Amino acid sequence: xxxxQNAKIRVAIFGSGRGTxxxxxxxxxxxxxxxxxxxxxxxxxxxxxxxxxxxxxGVSAVVLAPRDYSDPSMFSAQMLQILETKHVECIALAGxxxxxxxxxxxxxxxxxxxxxxxxxxxxxxxxxxxxxxxRAVLAAGEQCTGATIHLVTDxxxxxxxxxxxxxxxxxxDSPESLMARVQTAERWLYPRALDRLCHQLAYSRL
Length: 206
Known about the structure:
- This protein has 206 residues and is of the alpha/beta class.
- The protein has one domain: Rossmann fold, CATH 3.40.50.
- Helix content is 41%, strand content 20%.
- It contains seven helices and seven strands, in the order αβαβαβαβαβαββα.
- It has a seven-stranded mixed beta sheet with strand order 3-2-1-4-5-6-7.
- α2 (20-31) packs across α7 (175-204).
């Protein structure tokens, strides 16, 4: 069993909110023989619900806020040090509302994953998150939207797409009702996409 655990890719989850997506990732890892294990939760908010989620799963958590550092380079250096201390190999963004520091993106190139509540490259980019995306989808008269799992680069929502799932848009949809269905699809897709990526990462390090 120890060898199996050691073979799993060590993942840090970054989040800023309630932790519902993080919970989906953690539950999947607990219920299935996933290729990843979550070893750290990082948030920028001391009042974020994701901290309670981490505690309920027995996962270490840390609050890292840029405002607590006089220089951005100190913030990114501290983040890298914490990730290295926990031997993190992959980062999963789950409602993390800050841009990941460039130094971290560079160090973890090809190993930072994010979810977006639309079918990228549509409805992506700066300012396109949460309810704003679903308002834009409805305003455009789209009949189909979805969720995208993609790798993270220095540019918002521009990294290589790993997987997508489609979600129908109904005539009676509000931004809130559409968001609820897309979130359900995201929480189903994200753990499976992360599992497949980590399986590839584990294979490549053999």
